[in-house]
Amino acid sequence: MEYKLPFRDYHKALLKNRLLGLKCNQCGRVTCPPQMSCSSCSSYDLEITQLSGKGKITTFTTIVVAPEGRETEAPYIIVVVELEEGPWIMGNLTDMDPGRAGMDLIGKTVEAGCRVFPGDRYSDGPMARPAFRFAAHP
Q: Of 67, 71, 104, 111, which has the maximum CB count within 10 A?
C-alpha cells in the first residue's frame, strides 16, 4: 500500500506555504500531518486536501535546551494548534519573545507558514516544518 500523501510531497507543499492534509472519504475526518490511514476509522480511502492553516493555540511549551543542530535558536516556543478543519498539529510560534510566553497564549488565533530547519545526523537533510504567527484578524 502506498501513502496517499508521501512526506516529501507534504514537505514540498510546505515550502510553498501550502498546508496539506488527508480527508477520509468514509467518516470525513481530516488528518495532518499525513498518515497511512484515517486516525478515526482506520480507512485507507483518503484524499489530499489543502488546509487553511488557521487555528487556535491549545497548548504550548518553551524549549530552553534545544536538540542537536538547533542549540543557537533556544529558547523558542512550540505550539499545538487546533486547525479550523479539525486536526491538531505542532509547530514553532515565530513572532513572540519566548520570555513573554504565558497562559494568555491559549486560544489565540494563528496562521501557518513554514520554516526550514537544518538536518541532523538522524535526518535526510533540511526539512520544512509548520511555523505559526498570530493571525492578522483573529
A: 111
Please tell me the distance from the alpha carbon of residue 58 to that of residue 106, in angstroms, as a whole number: 5
* pTM (2 d.p.): 0.87
Q: Which architecture does CATH list for 54-134?
A: Beta Barrel (2.40)
Cα(21)–Cα(29) distance, integer angstroms? 10
26: which residues sit within 8 A by CB, 6+ positions away? 38, 41, 43, 45
Distance in angstroms (rounded) separating the CA atoms of residues 81 and 49:
18
Provide the pairing of β-strand 88-93 with 76-83. Answer: antiparallel
**Contact by Cβ (8 Å): 68, 56:** no
What residue segments make up the domains of the chain, in order of their start? 7-51, 54-134
Nearest-angstrom CA–CA distance, 32 and 54: 13
Which of 14, 27, 138, 42 shows the shortest CA–CA distance to 86?
27
